[in-house]
Amino acid sequence: MLDSLIQLLPELNTAFFQTLYMVVIALIVAILLGLPLGIILFVTDKGLFLENRPIKSIIGFIINMTRSIPYIILLVLLLPFTDLLVGNTTGPTAASVSLSVAAIPFFARIVETTFREIDKGMIEASIAAGATPWMIIKDVLLSEARPGLIQGVTITLINLIAFSAMAGIIGGGGVGDLAIRYGYYRYDNTVMFTTVIILICLVQFVQFLGDFTSKKIDKR
Questions:
Q1: What gap in Å lies between CA 97 and CA 165, rounded to an integer?
Q2: Cα dist. 172→9, 14, 76, 210 in Å?
Q3: What is the tens place of the pLDDT at every residue in 59-85?
């Protein structure tokens, strides 16, 4: 068993970096699109400075609908779109498409929830001082919510790591794909345990880094 594991080390190394590649792409997309969606969900809520119930309801419905679809089903549903976008349906680049779609609404809800923890008195004081909506978003919401947003990024990244393992079912590459091809199909428990340990270590490192960064920037 040990000999087979040693022979697989190059593939383990490749699979690890494939996992990093697909989750980092998905995380970047989630932040770029999920952050503004989360902001819109918050500022258009009842009683806020950009209250708009139709926009809030439409965006909220789309986000809830996407989040209600189990990732493995979403993965299959997005195969035609993935093929259209990247030209194939296998490999880490293809897997990053479905990961991104799953991560965007997840992160958007985290952003909205994080903003709800901000003292509304600060927002009201900014409005009274004549601050524009953009100034409130930039100087109050994003500034005060930084520790919570870092924690949100951490949670999103950990979920993406778990989802990336499922992407191996359709040949998405990464550690999950290796576990299925060599561990499950070949009944090699050593490979299965090794891939699980790799994923656990990766998640622990991400959580530690997220907690450390969040505490460092929390000035409260």
A1: 14
A2: 19, 13, 12, 26
A3: 999 999 999 999 889 988 998 999 999
Q: Which domains does the chain have, with CATH numbers?
A: 2-217 (1.10.3720.10)
- Residue for token pair 């989040």: 67
Query: What does the pLDDT look like over 99-141, one tens digit per residue?
Result: 999 999 999 999 999 999 988 888 888 888 888 889 999 989 9
Helices and strands in the chain: count of H runs, count of E runs: 12, 0
The tokens describing 169, both together, are 């079912």
Residue 6 to residues 11, 12, 19, Cα–Cα distance (Å): 10, 10, 20
- The answer to whether the pTM exceeds 0.70 is yes
Give the residue from 199, 155, 158, 176 showing the smallest Cα distance to 75.
Answer: 176
